[in-house]
UniProtKB/TrEMBL annotation:
Domain Signal transduction histidine kinase subgroup 3 dimerisation and phosphoacceptor positions: 195-260
Pfam families: DUF7134, HATPase_c, HisKA_3
Record's keyword annotation contains Chloroplast: no
Residues annotated as transmembrane: 50-69, 98-113, 120-137, 143-160
Origin species: Sphaerisporangium siamense
Protein name: histidine kinase
Length: 401
């Protein structure tokens, strides 16, 4: 695989020893040249120079400058070592060239790459080394020069600390961005899981109800196919209509999964106003169901409206499947002040065995979906046997403003 060559700046960042070594060699060369010129500046007047330059001075200058090559690895230790040649040059009255600049570079490195306490100690060491050199060579300059040196030293220290703080700030920004990205991904996964759970509940409610009614209708049609063909034909027509209704509802639910921007065949979700039609379907399927609506119907939030409808649908479907062919069911919807009460019950007196579940069926999904729906809107749910026989499902939804 072909890789893009890195830029020279990026390569130098990844190889800091090379750049520091080049800097050390340049400092050594310039210091030697500068020290040689400075040591001979008074030769024309016949007076000896204030400082001399020889092989010993060259060794001290080169050794000090070469310390810069390892400044990123041991900056504080090298800064302390750099004070010794500087003091030795002052004692021997040798010209030091750019030895002072080497000290400033090491001080900047300590301030930029080490903690506050160590950087303050490094600044103190730098000023102490200069003070010792100035005391030894008292005639090297006046108070103006000393003040300038102190100001330059503190400026270099402040610059190094600013670079360190800026680097820490950007690192914190990068870390915060990564945490926010991870949190956003976690929220996205949670939202997707919740949406999948919601779609699964909707699909279960639609498929379980319609398929159960279609199964009962098909069984009835099979039994009367030879003796009562007209009744069988009506059952088949009902099965066809139920199949079309189930397909429409499933397309409406699965439509939310579309990602290509196309508009699906979306239909309004069912609600409490559709309960009479639901009860009629159950009657056609053979369940003797009755509906009572008490109280004045208020404005019901869409979520509670759909949840209450699905609750009645699931409860009647369970009555149709398990209560027996001679069972009766009652649906009571009571609109109270600030609450919606939904009560579905059956007598469960079938007189014959109810159909057995197959080995692949996993009971309980419908009831779990009912519990989740009621809990989602802060309702209270009771599911269990009914006094006098049968089964009941009772839910109370709070209607908030």
């Amino acid at each position: 695989m072909r890789t893009t060559p890195a830029s020279p700046r990026a390569w130098l960042r990844s190889h800091p020893l090379f750049g520091d070594s080049v800097l050390a060699v340049l400092l050594a060369a310039v210091s030697l040249a500068f020290a040689g010129l400075a040591s001979g500046q008074d030769s024309a007047s016949g007076r000896p120079p204030a400082y001399t330059f020889n092989v010993a001075a060259a060794v001290l200058v080169i050794g000090t400058c070469l310390l810069t090559a390892l400044r990123r690895r041991w900056p504080f230790v090298l800064l302390c070592l750099a004070q010794l040649p500087q003091i030795a040059l002052a004692v021997l009255r040798y010209e030091g060239g750019l030895v002072g600049l080497v000290t400033l570079i090491l001080l900047y490195t300590v301030a930029a790459y080490r903690g506050l306490a160590l950087s303050m100690v490094a600044a103190a060491v730098t000023l102490a080394g200069y003070a010792v050199s100035a005391v030894i060579a008292f005639d090297a300059g006046g108070w103006t020069q000393h003040t300038i040196v102190v100001v330059v030293t503190m400026t270099v220290w402040v610059g190094g600390r600013s670079v360190r703080l800026r680097r820490a700030y950007f690192a914190e920004l990068v870390d915060r961005a990564e945490r926010l990205e991870r949190a956003r991904e976690a929220d996205t996964r949670a939202a997707r899981a919740e949406e999948r759970s919601r779609i699964a509940r909707e699909l279960h409610d639609v498929v379980a109800h319609h398929v159960s009614v279609m199964t009962v209708q098909a069984a009835a049609a099979r039994k009367v196919l030879e003796t009562r063909p007209e009744a069988a034909r009506e059952a088949l027509v009902a099965i066809e209509e139920l199949g079309r209704t189930a397909m429409r509802e499933m397309r409406g639910i699965v439509g939310v999964l579309r990602t290509d921007g196309e508009s699906g065949e979306l239909a309004p979700q069912p609600g409490m106003v559709d309960l009479p039609g639901l009860v009629d379907q159950m009657r056609e399927a053979g369940l003797r169901a009755q509906l009572w609506i008490e109280g004045e119907r208020p404005v019901i939030p869409p979520g509670i409206d759909l949840a209450a409808y699905r609750l009645v649908q699931e409860a009647l479907t369970n009555s149709l499947r398990h209560a027996g062919p001679a069972a009766r069911a009652w649906v009571t919807v009571r609109h109270e002040e600030g609450e919606l009460l939904v009560h579905v019950e059956d007598d469960g007196h079938g007189g014959v065995e109810t159909p057995q579940r197959g080995p692949g069926d996993r009971p309980g999904h419908g009831l779990v979906g009912i519990r989740e729906r009621v809990a989602l809107y802060g309702g209270v749910l009771r599911i269990g046997p009914r006094q006098g026989g049968g089964f009941e499902v009772r839910a109370r939804f709070p209607l908030k403003d």
